[in-house]
Amino acid sequence: MSELKLPTLAWRNIWRNRRRTLITLFSIAFGFMLAVVMTGIGDYSYSEMIDHSARLGGGHVIVQHSTYLDAPSLKKTVHAEPELIEDIRAHPRVRAAVPRVTGGVMLATSINNVGAGVLGIDPSIEDETTLGLVDSITAGEMFTSPDDEGIILGRTLADNLGVDLGKKVVYTVTDKSGEIASGLARVSGIIETGATEIDAGICLLPIGPFRELLGYDPDEATQIAVFLDDHRGAKDLAAELDATFGERLGPVSTTLPWYEAQPDLAGFVSMKVNGTIIMELIVTVLIAAGIFNTLFVSVMERMRELGILAAIGFSARQLFSLVLWESLWLGLCGIVAGVLLTAWPYYYLATTGIDVAQMMGGEGQAQVSGVSMSPVIYIELYPPHALFIALAVVIATMVAGLYPAYKAGRVSPVEVIRIV
């Protein structure tokens, strides 16, 4: 028989026992749906976490002093000339780039002294897409210019200091030369994110007076935060920026993707991703076991038939290929069935999502490594992951069919034709 007719014969063979084939296809489709839903929820959740974290002050790619990550200090700076910032923004993969001054500060009032993290920003080039805290200002307002004289405090931090809008706060830092320097500002805004770590430990200052207090040059900053539309391009972009602007940034600078600048968050995401992969492997093994059972039983039931085919001229290679074609058809039909079974759940999760606030104790947000997350779970499957799942199903079905195909290829016409 011509090789071109083997696919047709295999297609007919898998439908000779419709009930068994349909049960097998349902198992493949159900496993496909589980893999898509688990992976898609993970893709969306981890992407949201990374983007939230980037908008809390770091960026998807961070340009900073080469030793800042090991020992953060306001003395470790990079120079961010306006021309350089504009050139970075002009890169086709860059959505935004902003200079910032980050570090630690001691805040004092007549009631209390509290240490906090400080973020010096230029409000003229920041918005909710680069600084998520902008959306969390529940009282007062954002600075009007980089030379403003206000300070914005987290709600818990303001309560600990005993201040509210319009009250004065003294902030003290160690400047670039190592001297103690103090500034005075009035509370112009209150941040309330729902995340305790943020509300109790963050304040914002306009970058102009903060630079002056620290003894910085007008273009000096502790970091340049770079933002992308897709965080998965952070590694490549970091390498490109380093190669293109490394000399202009200076020998003391380094360009890091988010996962190197935030190893705690990267470790959490990696752990969860690996857990999802393990679950998918278990599902794949179960799918393969079901397909193996279907094909093996099918082959054993057709031993006499296969012997007759061998007697009339089918080679061992053709019989082997025939069963592999049956396995391939099961895999491809399983993917189609999986897409049909997954379509509605995926649409629902992508548009409506699942509110798990009650699972979080009724709180509005969850925190992971200091990152606030929405309690509504959505789904967004990355195309490469969808392709990987489809290939995994096909490969699993093909592997499951190897031994039944081997048995079919080894059939002896003289022995099996005598079977009644």
TrEMBL record:
InterPro entries: ABC3_permease_C, Lipoprotein-release_system, MacB_PCD. The keyword RNA-binding does not apply. Keywords: Cell membrane, Membrane, Transmembrane, Transmembrane helix. GO terms for biological process: lipoprotein localization to outer membrane. The chain crosses the membrane at residues 21-41, 277-299, 329-350, 386-406. It is a multi-pass membrane protein. Residues 281-413 form the ABC3 transporter permease C-terminal domain. One of its GO terms (cellular component) is plasma membrane protein complex. Belongs to the ABC-4 integral membrane protein family. LolC/E subfamily. This is ABC transporter permease YtrF.
